[in-house]
């Protein structure tokens, strides 16, 4: 079956005074209906810009400079403003890191769900309120009949994120994009929100694109994974292969940074150095300055090749050498 979402050679650039930054530079992946894909990488890897590009929410001086974003076979890059607005909130929904920024502080949370419903469906006030209560119940908000009349500031961070998920699911989207949905929340609440997303996926068959810096979360949540660095795909494939038998040195580093159960909250800095400024990306493999295996040929960008684990990796260790 054709993929629900098919991103092909996406290029999203930013014009700056010091030159063009290729925040996303040739990214491709597919998401099948009802499945889950994680995009993982450190901040500045281009993962959020990828999700914003899909939603056509990249703001100037950023712009989609090339590639295709096929949703059910139609290219979102060529959609009119109006078509994309109809699609957002109905077919594809985005949940951000900070629920407070996503909610309007002066409206009751229930009314914000009702607004989302009425923006895309012909549904009367009473029925919409009933549906809002039902959605609140579905996302695990206790006493939903009362909570719908609360203002956002009355709710905890975790409850607010449940509200934004309820809003996102109001119109039963085919694809739910979650961009670091738990980063702003404390650790116990993080686990609860991830459990919720997993449970919802089983119940409503929405495809999930999860953006995260935490490969441990991807391991628990996603069928497939794309590892990004410096705007490029370093490795991608089924999660079991990519995390069970990582082939790209960056994936190996990310996995080594997952805190072991005995050292909760502690993060090993397994990868030395930090992400270079996007204006100072080295030519060739962007991971070069931090890679323990770097060699002269790495000054030229390797292409994605099938590795022995079954994943695709962009690394000279896996290129066929002449
Ligand atoms: Fe390291 Fe070279 Fe592979 Fe890049 S291409 S990850 S620098 S070995
Ligand atoms: Mg981000």
From TrEMBL:
GO terms for cellular component: plasma membrane. One of its GO terms (biological process) is transmembrane transport. Keywords: ATP-binding, Cell membrane, Membrane, Nucleotide-binding, Transport. SUPFAM superfamilies: P-loop containing nucleoside triphosphate hydrolases. The keyword Oxidoreductase does not apply. Residues 5-255 form the ABC transporter domain. It is found in: Cell inner membrane. InterPro entries: AAA+_ATPase (IPR003593), ABC_Ni/Peptide_Import (IPR050388), ABC_transporter-like_ATP-bd (IPR003439), ABC_transporter-like_CS (IPR017871), Oligopep_ABC_C (IPR013563), P-loop_NTPase (IPR027417). Gene3D superfamilies: P-loop containing nucleotide triphosphate hydrolases (3.40.50.300). SMART domains: AAA (SM00382). It is a peripheral membrane protein. Pfam families: ABC_tran (PF00005), oligo_HPY (PF08352). The keyword Transport applies. One of its GO terms (molecular function) is ATP binding. Belongs to the ABC transporter superfamily. This is ABC transporter ATP-binding protein.
